[in-house]
Amino acid sequence: MHTFYLLSLGCSKNTVDSESMGQLLREYGLIPKKDPAEADLLIVNTCGFIQPARLETIESLKELANNKRPDQMLIAAGCMTQLYADDVILQVPQVDGVLGSRQWMNIVPLVERLNRQRSSSVGRKESSLYQLPVFDTNPTATARQVAIQGTSAYLKIAEGCRRACAYCAIPLIKGGLVSRPKHEILSDARYLQAQGVKEINLIAQDTTDYGKDQAGEYHFTRLIQDVLSVTPDVPWIRMLYAFPGCINDEFIKLMAENPRFLPYLDIPLQHAHPEILRSMNRPANIDHTRTQLTALRNAVENLVLRTTFIIGYPGEGENEFLALLDFVKEMQFDRVGVFPFYFESGTPSAPLGDPVPTEVKQDRIDRLMTVQQQISLAKNQAWVGKDLLVLIEGIDDVQKIAIGRSFRDAPEIDGLVFIEGNCSPGDMVQVRITDAMPYDLVGHLVRPKSRKKK
Prior knowledge:
Layout: E1 3-8, H1 12-28, E2 31-32, E3 41-46, H2 51-66, E4 73-78, H3 79-91, E5 97-99, H4 107-120, H5 124-127, E6 146-149, E7 152-156, E8 158-159, H6 170-174, E9 178-179, H7 182-194, E10 199-203, H8 220-230, E11 236-239, H9 249-257, E12 264-266, H10 274-279, H11 286-299, E13 304-311, H12 318-331, E14 335-340, H13 358-381, E15 387-396, E16 401-405, E17 417-420, E18 428-436, E19 441-445
Parallel strand pairs: 1-2, 1-3, 3-4, 4-5, 7-10, 10-11, 12-13, 13-14, 17-19
Antiparallel strand pairs: 6-7, 8-9, 15-16, 15-18, 16-17, 18-19
């Protein structure tokens, strides 16, 4: 076995795990391939968070399995195999091995085991499925936990979650909170700086919970201070996925005073009706949420607030939805993601069932997003005529434009800036905004003023 193909599904945290597996496989001597037909080993890092993600996982595995040659091996790794391994094996019997969500660091021992079985002709169905103890805490190898995408990167600071949100299967899949040691994170940050990365996105299931499982007073704000300190050449540091009510004064002061710590906060609120939030096991004091968001906006210039909401949670009637809609109108979020509620067996909300009809969920999603599109458009239009620093991510040779992101846009989930002018991927350029759409901006390069000849 000399080559491997790795398909990563799901969120940015999965992307980091996939990159870590790839690092271990490369160090073992395997060569990555972009075409599965050219690889000896096929790996799918699965997502099992919600039903659509599981369906995508099964379809991806089936596609690889149906084209798999006898000399190829197929491994299902990650979230779905942690919680639904039997279902994966039942639906895709061609799978040769499985690894759970916290077992990615054992990818090489699994490959060695599969190689031994192939050499000794041991029956695959009887003994090749490789399952380690759930939430293995004694990994046999370590790797960087970063994912570089162009000149932007994700850096994972923790695994798992200790929250008890009623709708969420993450604690079942990922286990409780395990914060990474500070020295490992800072080492990864230095590595990213050495690679020329222009943006580091700190990620975890709940970044604001970092350090709560460790002794001492070291917490997420101090971690961000240390990351800023060891990466002086990285222009942008962004933090994603904050928990409501966990932003403290020290954090606000750091964001307000350090221009490299981007004024961007992604705080998934999930709803705005107190009864629905209580049923979700989420912070239900919506007045406190209002107060904190207002304080953040008053303290941090040009702060971008992003949030997500779940529509159609059990118990959400028209009145509860209208309370959420009014909250969105009132708070004027810069970015909003909306998802329908999906029933997940084994979660605390499972006994509530899924009583809100699909068509009602979709109607409410459409109504909320119609409101939010107008808010987002107005927010974007306010930037017309102003300058923004933009990180260039690509060039459209057909349209003759550059494509990038400003501090207002997190990678993969937010909008883009389309730029007229000659620049290259990785450049950070000043752009004069000339037009605005609900999600994206248009502009042209701001040329530096030339000195007059004497």
